[in-house]
Amino acid sequence: MLSFNLALKLFMRDFKSGELRVLMFALWVAVAGLITVTLLVDRVERGMTKEASQVLGANRVMYSPQAIDAEIAEEAQLQGLQTSESLWFSSVILANDQFQLTTVKAVDHKFPLAGELKIAQALFEAGEVIQGKPQSGNVWLSPRLFNLLNIKLGDSVQIGAQTFIASGVIAKEPGGSSFFNFAPSVMMSVDDVAATQVIQPGSRLDYRLALTGSESSLESFDSWIKTQLNKSQRYLRAESGAPQLGNALSRAKKYLNLSGVLALLLGGIAIAIAANRYSLRHFDHCALLRCMGLKKDQVLFVFVWILLLVGTVGTSLGALTGWAVNEGLMLALKELLPEQVPPVRIETFVLGMAAGFIVLIGFALPSLIRIRSVQPMRILRKDLEPFSLAMWASILMAIFALSVVISLYSPSITIVAIMIVGGGFVAAISLVASLFLLKLISRLSQNRSMAFRFGVEHLKRHRAATLIQVSAFGLTLTLLLIILLVRNELIQDWKQQLPQDAPNHFLVNIQPEKVDALNQLFTANNLVSQGIFPMVRGRVVELNGEKVTELYKDKELHNSLRRELNLTWMEAFPEANELLEGQWLSENPQKIEISIEEEMAKRLELVLGSTMTFRIGADELTAEVTSIRKVKWDSFQPNFYVIFNKSALENMPATFISSFYLAPEQKMFLNDLVKLFPTVSVIELDLILAEVRRVIEKASLAVEVVLIFVMLSGIAVLLATTRSSLDDKLYESALLKTLGANRKFVAKTTFSEYWLLGLLSGVLAAISSEFIAFLLYEFVFKMEAQLHWWIWVTAPIIALLAVVPAGTLGSRSALKEPPSQVLNNR
Questions:
Q1: Are the C-beta atoms of 766 and 795 separated by less than 8 Å?
Q2: What is the pLDDT of residue 181?
Q3: Which stretch of DSSP H or E encloses residue 284?
Q4: At what angle do helices 413-444 and 391-409 cross, to 10 degrees?
């Protein structure tokens, strides 16, 4: 009780005198920045995921080739989730002596749970938003079916044994577009399926259970359903179910998590520097307390209580500030952020405040531990320095605190490892390079002005403080440069990945004799295709001479082994691919060669020289792997797992596939296309592309906003660092003034010091940011790493523009304070 009462009095006194304000400000900014960033990350991430669910048609979807157990839907409803059941299957639709293979989607009255279903009363109209199923006896058809079957609205069509009325045109449907859903869609009531009599033993069916609800209920159900799935069933989240969105969402989440970690790390640096200054200024107070009878541990507990009081006030202010700023952002950016931004979660506040305390203790406690070893004799002998905790112990305590906080937020372990390795690299480079550069600058300064030489000598005399400042400035600038680098290239990569003229329509089932005519049609309408590629269906039956059934007798088959694959042949290396290993396919007609996709090679444990045997119709072909490719599946271009050399497949029966960009005003071109090529199936991806662009634009905006708050955290570090050397600056300025130096000379000396600190920090930041950015690109964001020459010029300039003004403004009291007052207080 004595320790707390004394701590409360000292806390009030130090707060009024300004001793605790720097430490509290550092904590305030750190927690405010952390909570602002994490609230933004959490709400925007949940909002973007919710928007992604509009493409899938629900937050979660379960797929099964057999009827889904009723217990699963009942459990979902017990956990507060809404459910919708549907059945997808292939069937032929007949009308006017015409027939067409279609994908029938039998839905219930709750379809869709997310996104918009639009039904129009004329071809290629926008349509009206509808939720539910067609009335019994009615069906809704894809636009191209009306031309293929030569029918109009109100006409009769036949599916199996039942006749239906075509009462609507499907203008937009969530979850309806797919690269492999070749057949046009027919939507009907799930209650009418039995009347068609098309469901027979052996039919290939796709039962779907869609779910939506609160995040907590979904997460709870996610954990439960994992134990219920069998090998034939799949359970997809919104982002994984819409793979075209997956890459944008994944990279955005990684970036935002990285930004939160960096904001926290910057706050920790500011706290450590401010706490170190506070403890140094209170050694004499501790000696006085020891003289008055307090024991070592009692003195330590007094300052630990002070630290906790600072934490309570600082984290509370930070939490309130973070909430207020976040709400302001949500209002200001309402039109640009996801349409339905989820509300703030109380857990985010609790985690933010807990993180503030943990970082405060982890980064500040090493400095305060020194207080325990202050000797009473220090009252008489100021040269008695207390025991200092070993540098490695302080670093380990800070890393441990940071690791605990990171585990609370659960970001990528790879990111954390890279930041720790990169931070260690920065520290090592700073120590070695700073000493070397200081010696070099000292020699070069011999012929400079007296003020410049005084500034250099001050840095050399206070070598430890100089190294701390250079490391702090360098690390701060490094982190800001990393955020800026990743932000620029992330957004640029998104734009390159999805240009405005990206292919938004695919054509499949093109007959070989129609290829020339299709090219002529493209030319006549000024359309540019991405190429027309042959496609042969084949199944993998052997790997390296061993049958797949034997290799995977007790293991789950990889997806590429459970179904027929789309095989192709090419002479030129395909776009949106990168050759990782081996040589591209040769033209040797005596040899069967294949190039396979990277992930497929890993999962099937295939290397260069491995063999794969495919069954194509009644034939079997054994091919040698001569190259491995990385495929950009999100490029919206025709891509393949396996590519043969031309001579291997050119005599096999094949159909062709193509893709092209069609502007909205050219949509009626599809009418001519399906009339001229009635057997060709058109896959329209323009709607899903529009949704992808919306998500990418909002992800880009989130990246921009997060960058601002990380920069604010960096400013807090600059202020704390400049304040850390203020006492020595005051004392030396007072001595210079006493010896006859004028205010202008002292100002030049101060300017020279911070100019050199900024230059050193900028050079070190350029080196370390390139190193860490390389690791992030290679191992986290999966982007191509490159050297950024502009950093080597701009980093020192940015450092000078940031450090010099912050340092000179923070040290302005050294110019104003009378020398007598400073020396008397020393």
A1: yes
A2: 46
A3: helix 283-291
A4: 140
- The count of C-alpha atoms lying within 13 angstroms of the C-alpha of 128, restricted to the half-sphere facing its C-beta, is 5
Q: What is the dihedral of CA 625, 630, 635, 638, to 10 degrees?
A: 0
Give the span between the Cα atoms of 637 and 650, in whole angstroms: 22
Report the SS3 class of residue 389: coil
CB 83 within 8 A of CB 225: no
Distance CA 303, CA 8 (A): 10
Instruction: Tell me the CA distances in angstroms from 546 to 402, 560, 596, 618, one per residue in order.
Output: 50, 16, 18, 19
Task: Give dist(CA 598, CA 601) in Å, integer.
Answer: 5
- Cα separation of 170 and 172, whole Å? 6
Tokens 């990569």 -> residue: 493
- Distance, in Å, from the CA atom of 398 to the CA atom of 386, rounded to the nearest integer, reads 21
Going by pLDDT thresholds of 50, 70 and 90, the confidence category of residue 38 is confident
Distance, in Å, from the CA atom of 183 to the CA atom of 103, rounded to the nearest integer, reads 6
Smallest CA-to-CA distance from 131 within 70, 187, 207 is with: 187
> Coil, strand, or helix at residue 214?
coil
Tokens of residue 183, six digits: 């057949």
Q: How far apart are CA 132 and CA 220, in angstroms?
A: 27
pLDDT in tens, 77-115: 999 999 999 999 888 899 988 888 788 999 999 998 887
DSSP 407-443: HHH---HHHHHHHHHHHHHHHHHHHHHHHHHHHHHHH
What tokens were used for 677?
A: 């090529």
DSSP 18-37: TTTHHHHHHHHHHHHHHHHH
Residue with more model confidence, 352 or 196: 196
**HSE-CB for 669 with a 13 A CA cutoff:** 19
Q: Is the pLDDT assigned to residue 484 strictly greater than 50?
A: yes
Cα distance between residue 522 and residue 312, in whole Å? 69
Give the Cβ contact number of residue 280 at 10 Å: 16
Please state, rounded to an integer, the average pLDDT across all residues of the chain.
Answer: 76
Two structure tokens written together for 578:
């990168």
How far is 218 from 415, CA to CA, in rounded Å?
27
656 three-state secondary structure: strand
